[in-house]
Amino acid sequence: MTQTTKVGIEYPPVVLHTRPALEIDEEQFFEFCQLNRDWRIERTAEGDLEIMPPTGGETSNRNAILTHQVTGWAMRDATGVAFDSNGGFILPNGAVRSPDASWVRRERLANLTAEQKRKFLPLCPDFVIELRSPSDPLATIQAKMEEYVENGARLGWLLDPEERKVHFYKPGESARVLNSLDKLSGEPVLPGFVLDLKQIWEPAL
Fold this sequence. Notes:
6-stranded mixed β-sheet; 3-stranded antiparallel β-sheet; about 25% strand
């Protein structure tokens, strides 16, 4: 996710270094994000804050399509819950991330308290999708995808619309690049889920 200006140009997120000058615990970080709800804010495992203003129209449309497809499947399947790009997850390594789309099995959510469910969820999603915008450095998003897998994600897709490529991530496997696909199956992690990539490659705008 990236910053957009009034003329529609997108920029990478602003990074604020906090340690060792400032230590922010999970509760303080959550409250900080609530005070700045117009911004999407993530935190790295090292404590750096990555601040991302709203996206441009084309990226926003693609995100909406992703969320719609994942949520529609999750509601039919009923074994897990889908989340959009506003959902925060506290990974085991301490980072707080907000994938563009994600999914978590219901049995894992059942272990959380009502208080935990109201805040950033203390777990890594089972499935994550990140959408690369034109200004996003590829290496940065690839590192984030590897972080998800290292912290428990069972499947991850990095979508690159400009190149029409899917970077495919799974535990115990090297990342793979799939070219010019129209559809992408989530089997066996997501039984019956097929992402229509044509809607991502060719947005409505």
